[in-house]
Amino acid sequence: MSINLRTVYAFAREMYPKTSKETIQYGTAGFRGKAEFLDSVMFRMGVLATLRSRYRGGSVIGVMITASHNPEPDNGVKLVDPKGEMLEASWEAIATDLVNVSDQELEQQVAKIIKDNNIDVTTSSQVFVGMDNRYHSPRLLKAVADGVIALKGNVKEYGIVTTPMLHYFVVAANTKEAYGKPTEEGYYEKLIKAFELLRNGRLENGNYRNSIIYDGANGVGARKMLQFIKRMKGSLNVTVINQGIGVGKINEDCGADYVKVQQRPPKSMPEVEPFTRCVSVDGDADRVVYFFSDDKGEFHLLDGDRIATLVAGYLMELVTQSEINLRLGLVQTAYANGASTDYIVDKLKFPVSCVPTGVKHLHHKALEYDIGVYFEANGHGTIVFSDNAKATIAQAAETKESAKTLLLLIDLINETVGDAISDMLLVETILNHKGWDVQDWISSYNDLPNRQLKVKVQDRNVIETTNAERECVKPEGLQTEINKVVANYKRGRSFVRPSGTEDVVRVYAEAATKEDTDDLAYEVGLLVQKLAGGVGPELTKPNSAHL
Ligand code: 16G
Ligand code: MG
Question: Which GO molecular function entries does the Swiss-Prot or TrEMBL record give (predicted)?
């Protein structure tokens, strides 16, 4: 096969010219921005994925077109490496250079990547592409596919799928189906089979009721849940709201991000009995949070930290009962509620580590354990099992029921990346086994009130952090000022970091009371405005009482 790099340039100039002069930054999870500026980015990512596939000996590379929890006009691209991880960090810089060169420099830049990485362009390559249900996604998908074709690569289009489904397809194909069949049906089959075996015909147990309200964020997670329901034979009664079919914009006033950040139910929430279990996923269904309202109408959130502690506690029980010796660990980020960390360290005696925001960091760290549980507070997470763990559990399963359960859990969990639907089925399984309702679950510890704010600044990159984002080293003096403010609040904790997905600085605060938390967040927000070049309107003080 001979490759003519002129084709790349010709395609780019004719069909995907670079229209934006602004430098595009590789964010927390790939490139994201207004859809109208992304055609050239997508085409180039098709090119890059093909090169990456050849670099990795022809393994499948995934490209997912989605802007996750962002509003509808945005879109974005996430690249998936052969084992299901996010694109290797050293290639982020390669990707950034490639999207930022002019059309005229493109051919030369591609040649440089080939040379620098010793890529044999005559070998075969395979790229899987999926997209969310934004109206501009099909156009962008075509751009990715053309990028692959420009380099004579093979492309397989999966159409509308969740991000975790695409990760699953990539891993399934690269493991020669040892992980499952790389088809949509294969994915449903694997999860539903494990889920139903884990239910073992017992649909209700103790306080656990077998029905749930599911907020699909008007995104792809809604459509796929409807597919699950068709195939589940009543093992779980799911009512899907915010289906995104006909009415409702993706993530608008609904979905996991809205529920978590606003700390309230989606706007379209129907009237339900107090303590009804509700679940929200985000626009591409890789995050999940639970919530309910009590008999006084008060809202309660069960976020990623709650899921992490529930899962970690349960896995620990099963491992202990199975009398096997495995290293368990939980990975969190600075956003983890202080109360959850205390609970897991003091009560569950589970080792915890803290890493910077973004799945790539959590996933990587979790791989250091035999059973690595990782969750972000925003509901993004999963569990990874080492080969040693899988072999040990399989052996114990010959004699121990608890180990058999563990084996089925491994099948239910999408190890390749956080998967809202798989995580939800996992939580449902644990609650069912324990006979718990939401009240039992939430009573394990009390969350510290917390608040997040966004601050607009001239250039968010003036903020630099260390110590897993818990400390800010630049601009100089900001951390010292934050420390002074934090010291005035009981159980106060606050940190600031530049967002990797939006042009803002994020402020996180927690403290003993809601009022204190709001005050602390506001004070720190003002410090950021003052010391990091704030722009835009003066920050307004949050007020929980009015939420
Ligand atoms: C992305 C990340 C998510 C992280 C979020 C933070 C992946 C697949 N997703 O959605 O893990 O929590 O960004 O956004 O890594 P931020 O940088 O804007 O706060
Ligand atoms: Mg997402």
Answer: magnesium ion binding; phosphoacetylglucosamine mutase activity
Query: Could you tell me if 307 and 287 are in contact, meaning their C-beta atoms sit under 8 angstroms apart?
Result: no
286: annotated binding-site residue?
Answer: yes
N-terminal to C-terminal alpha carbon distance within the chain: 62
Q: Is residue 180 part of a domain?
A: no
What is the model's pLDDT at position 545? 46
Which of 70, 257, 359, 507 has the most ligand 1 atoms within 8 A of CB, as the residue to mutate? Answer: 359
For residue 232, give the amino acid letter: M
Rounded to whole angstroms, how far apart are CA atoms 102 and 437? 57
Sign of the alpha-carbon dihedral angle for 511, 516, 520, 522: positive
Contacts of 168 (CB under 8 A, 6+ apart): 84, 179, 180, 182, 187, 414, 416, 419
Residue 458 lies in a domain: yes
44 is in an annotated binding site: no
The reply to whether 28 and 135 lie within a common domain is yes
CA 504, CA 528: separation in Å to the nearest integer?
Answer: 11
pLDDT of residue 544: 54
> Domain residues for 231?
187-302
Residues forming the active site: 68
Q: Please tell me the distance between residue 90's alpha carbon and the centre of ligand 2 in angstroms.
A: 23
Ligand nearest to the CA of 331: 1
| Total domains, the chain | 4
User: Which has the closest alpha carbon to 469: 25, 28, 24?
Assistant: 28
pLDDT score for 42: 98
- 249, 268, 302 - which closes a domain: 302
Residues in CB range of 483: below 8 A, 6 or more apart: none
Judged by phi (left if over 0) then psi (alpha if -120 to 50, else beta), residue 149 lies in: alpha
CATH code: domain of residue 128: 3.40.120.10
Ligand 2 center–CA 133 separation, angstroms:
13
SS3 of residue 241 by DSSP: strand
Residue 287 · residue 478 · CB < 8 Å: no
Write the DSSP assignment of 45-83 as a string of letters.
Answer: HHHHHHHHHHHTTT-EEEEEE--TTS-TTEEEEEEE-TT
CATH of the domain at 297: 3.40.120
pLDDT category of residue 547 using cuts at 50, 70 and 90:
very low
The SS3 of residue 348 is: coil
Dump pLDDT digits (tens) for 503-525: 899 999 999 999 999 999 999 99
Cα gap 478→463, rounded to integer Å: 9
What is the spatial distance between Cα 279 and Cα 379, in angstroms, rounded to a whole number?
A: 11
Evaluate: CB of 378 within 6 angstroms of ligand 1. Answer: yes
Asked whether residue 106 is domain-assigned, the answer is yes
What pLDDT score was predicted for residue 541? 82
**Hey, how many other C-beta atoms are within 10 angstroms of the C-beta on 164?**
27
